[in-house]
Specification:
By secondary structure, this protein is an alpha+beta fold.
């Protein structure tokens, strides 16, 4: 996979404000959305000025699909989710990012989409949730956990 240099890559400020970094995969950052109502991870390819998946090289498109499927598989296995929703909307945040949301028939928004359905409820102890997700994701080839001071 030929990935462009990421030295000038920057996470969109809204994604940075709404998430906790979990770590990295070969192509993407892995983020935890700070909403305790839904297990919700985001992949962000570490390339600058990306808005759409088809803007990635073919090799990077394939890598993003591998990473997305690996994240979805972990969520499904670890959480016994009824459904894994994967979406790349980008209407509010233009930087390419892929949402992965584990859904349950008993969750607060089921069966509707989660966006705008209920106000966010932040994790009471985000560092514990980050550690739990890092342990779960350690099973994914190429995952490197984020380091915290």
């Amino acid at each position: 996979m030929n990935t462009p240099a990421v030295s000038d890559f920057a996470l969109h400020p809204q994604l940075a404000a709404d998430t906790q970094p979990l770590g990295e995969l070969p192509l993407s950052l892995v983020l935890l959305v700070n909403d305790s109502q839904y297990p919700w991870l985001i992949l962000v390819p570490k390339q600058t000025n990306l808005r759409e998946m088809h803007h990635l090289s073919e090799a990077c498109q394939q890598q993003l699909m591998r990473e997305s499927c690996a994240i979805a598989s972990v969520m499904e296995m670890e959480l016994s989710a009824d459904k894994i929703n994967v979406a790349a909307l980008g209407n509010m945040v233009p930087q390419l990012h892929l949402h992965h949301v584990a859904r349950f028939t008993a969750d607060a928004a089921w069966p509707a989409p989660i966006w705008g359905k209920h106000p966010t409820i932040a994790y009471a102890k985000p560092s514990q949730e980050v550690a739990l997700w890092q342990q779960r994701l350690s099973k994914v080839d190429g995952f490197t956990p984020a380091r915290y001071a």
